[in-house]
Amino acid sequence: MKLIQITAIFLMGMVTAMANDLSKSIIKVSTTLQSYNASQPWEKTAPSKRRGLGAVLNGQKVLTTAEMVANSNFIELETADGLHTFPAKVSAVDYEANLALVVPTTDKGKEALSKAKPFELSSPVELKDEVEIVQLEDNGMTIVTEGRLQGADIVSSFVDGHFFLTYEIKASLQSAANSYTIPVLHKGKLLGLLTSYSSKDQLLDVIAPEIVAAFLKDAADGDYVGFPSLGIASTATTDPNFRDWLKLSDEQGGLYITRVQPDSPASKAGIEKGDVLLAIDGNEIDRKGFYRANGYGQLYWTHLIRGVKSTGDTVKMTVLRDGKKSQHSAVLTRTPEGIIPSHTYDRAPRFLVKGGLIFQELSSSYLQAFGKDWENRAPINLLDALNHPEDYEEGRNRIVFISATIPTPATLGYEKVNSAIVTKVNGQDIADIPSLIQALSKPDEQGIHTIEIDESPNKIYLDSKTADTVDRQLLLRGLPSLSRETE
């Protein structure tokens, strides 16, 4: 009995010592966030607060999640003991991977971080390995919870549609302050950052160390580029009739390529819509898009691009076209954003108000403003553009649409027009908000603007003099600006 008690006391002392030591390596992060109003892009929403933890790294840098700093007006760091607080700024951020580096902006802050104990990065771990989850109470007390790695998957943790390697860890976390983002360790080294926690299932999602290491390597020179992408959309080849049509044998897996983004690595490598992607760098891809990864079991194929490779690396692809195999090499780059940005964090949306018509550029962020069930609640035509951008790309840099109509003397009869995609104005194709502004500077000889849209009434006629009068009245009534041409 005494031996058990002595062992328990010894272990408790070790945990306390670890907790005290960790307090020199973690720091509180507080941010004030303020995004732009989706329906009124000339103004911002009410500010909100977010509190989490960051991991101190070499060079007086702090690693946290991008979610902590997205649309931030102010960032403040505070030492674990609460003795020092100081402002900070973002030095590198990747919203797709959900990672950010922040640095102090004052000499006081730099001095405080110089006394901290930077974390070393952990190497990847194996299934069933134990990890430590670190939390910090307001009084500076460090809480260390043990967890166990249950599995790994490719997960979208912040920006929809962007997937990265994520560890799934089994642990029961306590309720503690500053826990929006917390570090996860393996044998005292930084493994990753928590991005979500299910108290019901007692499961944590943690950004994997491979992704953290790649982010830090890219950010080291102060010129962050970002994770590469291949630039394709694909679908499974599980349907037997579909497979027969593609001339796929029973032994072959493969993904059917439904779209190749213009100017992407895949496009430059000669990949075409209708090809079947069979393998990447010798890793065979099955009918659902998975391959066997050492140490992790089955992972989705995108990890071979965004988890294994860096921008500038070359990948070799095996594809099937008309029943024949071919080899293609692609130099990986950051694929162009496309006509519908996947997010608009830290960017002011471009817009134009003309005579009461509100014009905006479509983004995923705008659609997500329709709420939790946005994929069913957002306007059908805008969702179609999101899901089939190839049908809208020609002649466009962005998709311009009328988001709402303010009832004014200039918009009589058009009050119900909203969510209508603009195709032409005064005979000119509309590529983005700047081109719209330019087109609206030239009404016809009768002083009428003709705005062509993708739904009834198909054409809107706007009297330029009446519209200009309305614009002046809107400014007098408090509208801060009629347009924003730059993001």
TrEMBL record:
Keywords: Hydrolase, Protease, Serine protease, Signal. Residues 1-19 form the signal peptide. It comes from the Bacteria. Residues 213-323 form the PDZ domain. Gene3D superfamilies: 2.30.42.10, 3.20.190.20, Trypsin-like serine proteases. The keyword Signal applies. Pfam families: PDZ_2, PDZ_3. PANTHER family: PROTEASE DO-LIKE 10, MITOCHONDRIAL-RELATED, PTHR45980. This is PDZ domain-containing protein.
